[in-house]
Amino acid sequence: MARFTEDQISEIQETFSLFDNRGDGKIHAHQIGDVLRALGQNPTEAEVRRCGFHDDSDQRISFDMFFPILQTISKNQDTTTLEDFIEGFRVFDKEQNGFIGCAELRHLLTSLGERLTDDEAEQLLQGQDDPQGNVNYEEFVKMVMSG
After folding, report:
1. How far is Cα of residue 117 from the mean position of the Cα atoms in its chain?
2. What H or E segment, with its residue span, contains residue 33?
3. Is 78 a residue whose pLDDT tops 50?
4. Which of 3, 46, 83, 100 lies at a 20 to 30 A Cα distance from 111?
5. What is the mean pLDDT of residues 9-18?
6. pTM here?
7. Distance between CA atoms of residues 55 and 64, nearest Å
8. Residue 18 class from Cβ within 10 Å (0-12 exposed, 13-18 middle, 19+ buried)?
């Protein structure tokens, strides 16, 4: 389990309390992902669903129920590097020239892994393609990872 100092736990509790809209020391279960992200984590939707609270939208959880979830997510934090993503796209670079077709990239983003919606993919790809309809995937990955 990830270890936190007393000061860190206090800050985590403070952030948790910002999402407590009733003042009862609890948050709605559907807010787990939002609180985790506010704490600097980046869980996937699948990881949030695995917490087991997604079925009941009215369920509320206490900090004592939330904290082990945070510890687990922190421990499992993604350590994927820029090079890992570039290497993944290289598989789709048929000509090995650093480019993949914009349509193919759009298809990958909307059909594999954490799928994006068509609108999300369109937003990410806006202005990324060259006149031939290709995307420099190294530059694309750098842009996405820089936020």
Report:
1. 14
2. helix 32-38
3. yes
4. 83
5. 95
6. 0.55
7. 20
8. exposed
